[in-house]
Amino acid sequence: MDLSVNNVFRQAILGATQNRAVRGLVDRHGMRLGAARFVAGETVDEVLEVLRALDRRGFKTNTTLLGEAIHDATTIQEVVDTYVEVIDRIAAEQLRTNVSVKLTQLGLDISEDEAYRNTAHIAEHAERHGQFVRIDMEESTRVNATLAIYRRLLAEGHANTGTVLQAYLYRTRNDLRGLLPLEPNLRLVKGAYLEPPAVAYQRKRDVNINYVKLLRKSLSEGGYTAVATHDDRVIDHVINFTAKHGIGTERFEFQMLYGIRQKLQEELLLSGYPVLVATPFGPEWYYYLMRRMAERPANLLFVARQAFSR
Ligand code: FDA
């Protein structure tokens, strides 16, 4: 059944995210009560410590300075400066890490040009150190601009960039088809935002079916596919599909989020698959934490247990 408890729960949590009282409560107590399980600290020093430890264990990583929908130029410049610093520090320690950015943090709400300039600046800096830059995908209203910026980056020679496509959107099938001739580096995900039926599948089952179709298409063509999921069944499917079609690990990797299904991350790594752990940091962790809670009722219970055990 798709109008399941989980689906109702997901919509309720994502709906409550904009509520000021909820935000106040979570902002005050969230880090102490469990956000630290999903967020690798608030500062560059703290995240570097986690990235170093993951690197030593054989994981690839990416990192994101949390925060979205920034409208003022000074804060946007601080975000750009932080990414430049992170890139330098990754390079100095030769970590297998890249940065993953959100365009609404880099000026998309001011203009597409502003977001392009800032992203291109970060991509150029990363390029000098032989690093890659991923552009996360945000709400459906941002998809056109995100894909336009990604295409422009490629056209301007920033081949060290990639983006994300979300399986819950009906449009993604066409977006993928349009991008494949460019041999893109794509992270495929199910999708984390609250989207209306006009643009997105509402039933988990439909999202899962579309996700597998998109993965098969992407893996079968040129380019690089990051399979970003914690879903065993999808992961098993990709393992069988790539083995059957002779698709090697130079063409794909698994990606999971920091703090989620660590045992599965280890097992895949031990089986010889590249595994990237997406490891976010920063003081603006509120929306990120709420999306992780919406994905799984157990996460809310985890936070509640922390609260009552004090
Ligand atoms: P699904 O939600 O079906 O979960 C499958 C199983 O995984 C669950 O049964 C549970 O065991 C485990 N699981 C999943 N989520 C969990 C959680 N929060 N806590 C504990 N266990 C959990 N989205 C987006 O819109 N834009 C983006 O740019 C990205 N970027 C991104 C990067 C990476 C590396 C990952 C892994 C994910 C994203 N996402 C994202 C999020 C993505 O869209 C999706 O919301 C989550 O990955 C959860 O979906 P799953 O594919 O894991 O499956």
Structural account:
The chain is α/β, with parallel strands linked by helices and 310 residues long. The protein folds into 2 domains: 65 residues, no CATH class; 242 residues, TIM Barrel (Alpha-Beta Barrel), CATH 3.20.20.220. Helices cover 51% and strands 12% of the residues. It has 12 helices and 8 strands. The chain has an 8-stranded parallel barrel with strand order 1-2-3-4-5-6-7-8, surrounded by 7 helices. Helix 7 links the parallel strand 4 and strand 5. Helix 4 runs parallel beside helix 5. The model has no long low-confidence stretch (mean pLDDT 92). The site of dihydroflavine-adenine dinucleotide has 24 residues, from strand 4, strand 5, strand 7 and helix 11. The site of dihydroflavine-adenine dinucleotide (FDA) has 24 residues, from strand 4, strand 5, strand 7 and helix 11.
Short descriptors:
about 300 residues, alpha/beta, TIM Barrel, 2 domains, eight-stranded parallel beta barrel, about 50% helix, binds dihydroflavine-adenine dinucleotide
Number of domains: 2
In the predicted model, the low-confidence regions spanning at least 5 consecutive residues are none
Element pattern in H and E:
HHHEHEHEHEHEHEHEHEHH
The helix fraction, in percent, is 40-55%
The second-level CATH architecture of the largest domain is Alpha-Beta Barrel
Strand arrangement within the widest β-sheet reads 1-2-3-4-5-6-7-8
> How much of the residues is beta strand, in percent?
5-15%
Q: Using the alpha-carbon principal axes, give the shape.
A: globular
The name CATH uses for the topology of the largest domain is: TIM Barrel
Number of helices: 12
CATH class of the largest domain: Alpha Beta
